[in-house]
Specification:
It is built from 8 helices and 7 strands, in the order E-H-H-E-H-E-H-E-H-E-E-E-H-H-H. By secondary structure, the chain is α/β, with parallel strands linked by helices.
Length: 201
């Protein structure tokens, strides 16, 4: 998993509330078990019409936000089903951080496991960030996980907090497998000892 330390990039404003996982990645794209390739279908029903043509009014289709790496979202982001494909699609598109007033618990947890930083902030702060993001590609926002601070394009700083263990995992690029592999020598030692003590197993 890629480390997350500091991210400076374009933030896309998406003030819709209750964006569920089916809106993030519709069910017809869930057949794959690969984490790559889903970015092209991110927000598919919002980005494209029935004929597959881009909806020019949708924020991620606008030139200023095609390379967005941060999403400023409305309340209750990621609600609905527990599909892990939702953070996969966001990450494959290029989104590394989502900021909202609240997240659905399962989506929130899945973000950390896949290298995305979900940040919860009060409504008044999200309103400031939403306004900053609305300025377009020239308004680049910085998310500093080491300092736990979001900085707007004009230098306003807002502190956030992340669970220390999750922060450690993101800073060091450790998913569940990575955490296990940190114990590889101890695991190998245990297996060698068991092979000698109980060779019939």
């Amino acid at each position: 998993m890629e480390k997350f330390t500091q991210l400076t990039g374009v933030a896309a404003p998406m003030p819709l509330v209750n964006i569920d996982t089916d809106m993030i990645i519709p069910k017809q794209f869930l057949k794959t078990i690969l984490r790559s390739g889903l970015g092209k279908n991110l927000f598919d029903e919002l980005r494209f019409d029935a004929d597959g043509n881009e909806n020019p009014g949708f924020v991620l289709n606008q030139p200023a936000y095609r390379q967005a790496e941060i999403l400023i979202a409305g309340d209750n982001f990621g609600c609905g089903s527990s599909r892990e494909h939702a953070p996969w699609a966001l990450l494959d598109f290029g989104i590394r951080c989502v900021i909202s007033t609240s997240f659905a618990d399962i989506f929130f947890n899945n973000c950390f496991k896949n290298g995305i930083l979900p940040i919860t902030l009060p409504q008044d702060v999200v309103d400031v960030l939403m306004e900053d993001a609305s300025r377009g590609a020239n308004a680049r926002m910085t998310v500093d996980l080491e300092r736990e601070v979001v900085t707007t394009s004009d230098g306003k700083e807002f502190a956030f907090s992340v669970d220390p263990f999750r922060r450690h995992c993101l800073l060091n690029g450790l998913d569940d497998i990575g955490l296990t592999m940190e114990k590889a020598s101890a695991i190998q030692g245990f297996e060698a000892k068991m092979a000698t003590a109980r060779p019939w197993i």
